[in-house]
Amino acid sequence: MMLKEFFSSLVKVMNKEKIGLVHMSFLIFSCSNNPIKSKTNFSNYPKMNSQNVRYIISSNLQNFKGCYDREGEDKRQFVTLEFLVDPKGNVRRPEVSANTKLRKLEDCIKIILSGLTFEKMPHSKEFRYAKQTLTFVPSFRGEN
User: Fold this and answer.
1) 135 Cβ contact partners less than 8 Å away, ≥ 6 residues apart
2) Would you say the pTM of this structure is higher than 0.85?
3) What is the pLDDT of residues 102-135, one digit of tens each?
4) Could you name the CATH architecture of 25-138?
5) Which pick of 36, 83, 85, 123 has the fewest CB atoms within 10 Å?
């Protein structure tokens, strides 16, 4: 069943059951490689453990989704997060790029990303590199 068909049938059920206004938005957490290219060459840095990155990012999905709900213009968005993590676990040099180049969306997500804290590496002086892709799907609004 296609997503559009699913939502159409959901609205019919909601109307039948007299359920009022609904606003649903979705965030698909993805680890795919995205065609959006980074402005910075991060290739000289060791990569972080992707499970650790996914865990921290997924723990903050509601914050990222809030940015999309405010700034995403109800368009499908692929947002690539690239950043370094210092030995204390702080995010450094975050880069955020959306496929539709919505500056406000990118800036909002960059603020959230900059405030995250990752695993500390107290015996290391090395920065670690992380990359993650978020896929946002447009909000759905239905009324009875």
Assistant:
1) 27, 28, 29, 30, 32, 76, 77, 78, 79
2) no
3) 899 999 999 999 999 998 887 888 899 999 999 9
4) 2-Layer Sandwich (3.30)
5) 123
